[in-house]
Amino acid sequence: MQAATVLEANPLREGLRMARTPEPNAMVIFGATGDLTRRKLIPALYNLHASRLLPAGFSAVGVARRPWTTESFRETMRQACARHAALPVTPEVWESFARGLYFVRSDFAEREGYGRLDELLRTLDRERGTAGNRVFYLATPPDQTPAIVRLLGEAGLAQRRPGWSRLVVEKPFGQDLTSARILNSVLREVFPEDEIYRIDHYLGKETVQNILVFRFANAIFEPIWDRRYVDHVQIAVAEAVGMEGRGSYYDRTGTLRDMVQNHMMQLLSLTAMEPPVTNEANIVRNEKVKVLKALRLPGIDEVPHLTVRGQYGPGYIAGQPVPGYQQEPEVAPGSGTETYVALKLFVDNWRWADVPFYLRSGKRLTRRVSEIAVQFRRAPLKLFGAELEPPEPNILALRIQPDEGISLRFSVKLPGLQLEVRPVSMDFLYGTTFGRTPEAYERLLLDCMLGDTTLFTRNDEVEAAWEYTTRIMRGWDAAPPPEFPNYEAGTWGPDAAQRRIAADGRRWRRF
Ligand code: BG6
After folding, report:
1. Runs of H (alpha helix) within 65-167
2. Which long-range contacts (CB under 8 A, 24 or more apart) does 83-90 make?
3. Which residues pair with 60 in a beta bridge?
4. Quick check: bond before 172 cis, omega within 30?
5. For residues 109 and 60, what is the distance between their CA atoms, to the nearest angstrom?
6. Hey, whose CA ends up nearest to atom 2 of ligand 1?
7. Whether residue 263 lies in the annotated active site
8. 328 lines ligand 1 (CB under 6 A)
9. Which atom of ligand 1 is nearest to the CA of 440?
10. 202 CA: nearest ligand 1 atom
11. What is the pTM (predicted TM-score) of this model?
12. 59 with 102: CB under 8 angstroms?
């Protein structure tokens, strides 16, 4: 009984409330009329407010070029929250939240706009008690980042007055290693590294944070988490969606930059890292960087043997016809951009030497599923009859989404008079055990206000991830152009990806 009551009260949310209330602050959102603000940022702030996790007087100031006013901003955000916030939008809660929403109309390149912003922020300090603490969130196209950051610096907004100033930057963080380095140096001319929050929203997902808890709060897995027991690791981030109106961005980006360089490299480093000695932000991030720095960099001519690129043609998703990539709006006809990547990589350290990590990600695959599967070596002896199939290897699968959970596959005797061995699995599901968990952006916005950088990407992490992915890009540039499209929408990707892993005597997990 007791346990059930505790669970209904949602221990995660209660825990957050007790332990963590940020100092009063104002969050400035550049790109306030865009999709990210409407779908993710303001709904996440609303959920935090409704859960009483925001400090009193918290204010969010939208900045954008469109001729909106504070009134129209509030009204548009109310509709956005009604649609996208996880918690219900009730009149009283909305009213108290909306009182902290403001809008400043300005072109991001216009100096005077920063002056007006500064004035408003000072007023909020006086009237709402935001105490000189600011978060500057850039929900803007990446090419605007350097100019905005420089102008924030020139306007004196990046300085600690009394209070702090933090910068949040969305991905993509550069286009390759060189551009990421340049961007890092621009940001660090204006903000110190510990006030720069590079967002990778995967790190805000409960199931992703749980990778470390699962590995290091349980003593039984760590001793077998290495090359002696693990045959290989598969990391999949599959999506059923296509371009969703982002054709122009995607055609310049492709899956390697959009998913592999950031989200998948984060999943990989959390899976492969050594135990940190404390859970302090830089100690954890030091261990993650070591994994990325240990990635074996393939020679340019090895790249085609270690990777498979794909692009979807027309097909069917859940029985409905969908267009091919090249027929999507804003995609160049004859485009050579990949919408699917599969690759094999190695982490050259003592723990993982020669253990392959197989990564795959793609758009318009059969269904949405993200998972990390650690496949253990087979039992050494065929004890149960030479004529029987060898028992299936044990697999520990961390399901990131959907159906968030963990499953462990092992073999048992099939009941009956004959000896037959069958794989079964033991499953833990977050939904049935804990109920609703906070959205990724709730956690990340709150951590940023709290000054906790653990779930944000440090400059050296970004650069190490780019070093590897840039090498893959160079290998592709040097190879003959791929023949696209090479997989039908609604399938699991190009046949070549199946053949490639089969050549290693392994197969992709089926979902
Ligand atoms: C974004 C990518 O970072 O992540 C998108 O730009 C992708 O292309 C999205 O669809 C996936 O996020 P999630 O949380 O739905 O797995």
Report:
1. 70-84, 91-98, 111-128, 145-154
2. 84/38, 84/39, 84/40, 84/43, 85/43, 85/44, 85/46, 85/47, 85/50, 86/43, 86/47, 86/436, 86/439, 87/46, 87/47, 87/50, 87/51, 89/46
3. 27, 101
4. yes
5. 21
6. 258
7. yes
8. no
9. 14
10. 14
11. 0.92
12. yes
Per-residue pLDDT of the chain (511 residues; tens, 9 = 90+): 333 333 344 544 444 444 578 999 999 999 999 999 999 999 999 999 999 999 999 999 999 999 999 999 999 999 999 999 999 999 999 999 999 999 999 999 999 999 999 999 999 999 999 999 999 999 998 889 999 999 999 999 998 678 999 999 999 899 999 999 999 999 999 999 999 999 999 999 999 999 999 999 999 999 999 999 999 999 999 999 999 989 999 999 999 999 999 999 999 999 999 999 998 999 999 999 999 999 999 999 999 999 999 999 999 999 999 999 999 999 999 999 999 999 999 999 999 999 999 999 999 999 999 999 999 999 887 777 666 666 789 999 999 999 899 999 999 999 998 888 889 999 999 989 987 788 899 999 999 999 999 999 999 999 999 999 999 999 999 999 999 999 999 999 999 999 999 999 999 999 9
Contact 206 CB / ligand 1 (< 6 Å): no
Tokens of 469: 């992915």
CB 121 within 8 A of CB 130: yes
> In testing the pocket of ligand 1, which one of 173, 263, 457 has its CB within 8 Å of the most ligand atoms?
263
Question: Which of these is catalytic: 49, 232, 263, 305?
Answer: 263
Q: Exposed, middle or buried by CB within 10 Å (0-12, 13-18, 19+), for 301?
A: exposed
Both structure tokens of 13: 């949310």
Best of 203, 237, 249, 259 for a ligand 1 pocket test (most atoms within 8 Å of beta carbon): 259
Only one residue has tokens 């003959």, namely: 480
How many C-beta neighbours within 10 Å does residue 414 have?
Answer: 11
Establish whether residue 461 lines the binding site of ligand 1, counting it when its CB lies within 6 angstroms of any ligand atom. Answer: no
- Residue 393, classed as helix, strand or coil, is coil
Per-position b or e across 260-286, b if 16+ CB within 10 A of its CB: bbbbbbbbbbbbbbeebeeeebeebbb
- 3-class secondary structure, 422: strand
